[in-house]
Design a protein that fits this description.
It holds the Pfam family NIL. A 6-stranded mixed β-sheet has the order 6-7-8-3-9-10, with helices on both faces. Strands 2-1-4-5 form a 4-stranded antiparallel β-sheet. The chain has a 4-stranded antiparallel β-sheet with strand order 12-13-11-14. 39% of the residues lie in helices and 30% in strands. Helix 3 runs parallel beside helix 5 and helix 11 runs antiparallel to helix 12. The chain has 2 domains: 243 residues, Rossmann fold (3-Layer(aba) Sandwich), CATH 3.40.50.300; 92 residues, Alpha-Beta Plaits, CATH 3.30.70. By secondary structure, it is of the alpha/beta class. The protein has 12 helices and 14 strands. The protein is elongated, with a radius of gyration of 24 Å. It binds adenosine-5'-triphosphate. Adenosine-5'-triphosphate binds next to strand 1, strand 2 and helix 1.
Length: 341
């Protein structure tokens, strides 16, 4: 659906050339929710501006549904851009227009008749859950409601792709979750492809199928959200995963656990949801004559399923413990020994 091929964008600044996006190649599949995460300055905004044709690449290409946006101009660019819609962190609503007139605006520009506009606006208001607010002005709405208007307006002309630029960053956690649920609902109901940029791993965990991690203009890691949460490779990715799992707390707990369970070995298992029912633990105990204490565990939900972490204390004869750990390494779970005798 969206293809970025060796995409780069360089800006000339007073300090010389600045590479904002550096040789990015990725594909967003039809119907997918794809997240791009990075800290401030990583190049996310530049990337999204390249995606909707607001910036021209220095090199490489952007193709949306077979049409190259990066090399189009004039009418061709305008028609290509109609397939791509966007919502923003600060909503970008027209403050002097009511909710229904804001949503109607792109339809007016597209030359849709008044009767058809009314019908479509009604449909969209229902879709985003704003019934009863048709005549309200943006200043009379909560942040979540404003973003619902933004979403309805973005969907008015039936785009093929929705781009979300930090769409929930100005909202409180509860409202964030409601807006994220609305995006998932729209993705499922309309089969709409969604590409979003964010600095919050919570957003990625909650709604994305796949994620690309950006650092200094480059995509440094990419994969299914489940995979990335389960086995992050790069340090930056690990830091993002910790945003959701809570690092200090976890490391404090681990230090505490080591103190509390000084004998045997402390092992961390990371497993994917549908493998949780496999009787790995009971086999382990039966086969190796070790004692297994479940010390701590949690499960995290993502759009691709759940993944869990389980801390075990394995105690017994040294040889039996080592064999038991070898057995775990041979299973389909990620196993890490976090303390030694
Ligand atoms: N028009 C421009 N001219 C010069 N430099 C720019 C321009 N736009 C972006 N940059 C630079 O490119 C780099 C990437 O910026 P970008 O805004 O894409 O990052 P970001 O990940 O979106 O960060 P943020 O979340 O803070 O917006 C930054 O160093 C920024 O200063």
């Amino acid at each position: 659906m969206i293809q970025l091929q060796n995409l780069s964008k360089t800006f000339k600044t007073s300090n010389g050339q600045l590479i904002a996006v550096d040789d990015v190649t990725l594909t967003v599949e039809q119907g997918e929710i794809f997240g791009i995460i990075g800290y401030s300055g990583a190049g996310k905004s530049t990337l999204i501006r390249l995606l909707n044709g607001l910036e021209k690449p220095t090199s490489g290409s952007v193709t949306v549904n077979g049409q190259e946006i990066s090399s189009s101009s004039g009418q061709a660019l305008r028609s290509a851009r109609q397939k791509v819609s966007m919502i923003f962190q600060h909503f970008n609503l027209l403050w002097s227009r009511t909710v229904e007139d804001n949503i109607s605006f792109p339809l007016e520009i597209a030359g849709i008749s008044k009767t058809k506009r009314k019908e479509r606006v009604k449909e969209l208001i229902e879709l985003v859950g704003l019934t009863g607010k048709e005549k309200a002005y943006p200043s009379q709405l909560s942040g979540g409601q404003k973003q619902r208007v933004g979403i309805a307006r973005a969907l008015a002309n039936n785009p093929e792709v929705l781009l979300c630029d930090e769409a929930t960053s100005a909202l409180d956690p509860e409202t964030t979750d409601q807006i994220l649920e609305l995006l998932v609902d729209i993705n499922k109901r309309l089969g709409l492809t969604i590409a979003l940029i964010t600095h919050e791993m919570h957003v990625i965990r909650k709604i994305c199928h796949r994620v690309a991690v950006m650092e200094a203009g480059k995509v440094v890691e990419m994969g299914s959200v489940l995979e990335i949460f389960q086995t992050p490779q790069q340090d930056i990715t690990k830091r993002f995963v910790e945003q959701v799992n809570g690092p200090e707390e976890a490391s404090q707990t681990i230090a505490h656990l080591i103190e509390q369970y000084p004998s045997g070995k402390l092992v961390k298992l990371v497993f994917v949801g549908d493998r949780t029912e496999q009787p790995i633990l009971s086999r382990l105990i039966k086969k190796y004559q070790v004692e297994v204490n479940i010390v701590q565990g949690n499960i995290t939900q993502t759009q691709n399923g759940a993944y869990g972490t389980l801390y075990l204390q394995i105690d017994g004869a040294t040889l039996a413990i080592d064999e038991a750990i070898d057995y775990l390494h041979g299973q389909d779970v990620h196993t890490e020994v976090i303390s030694h005798d």
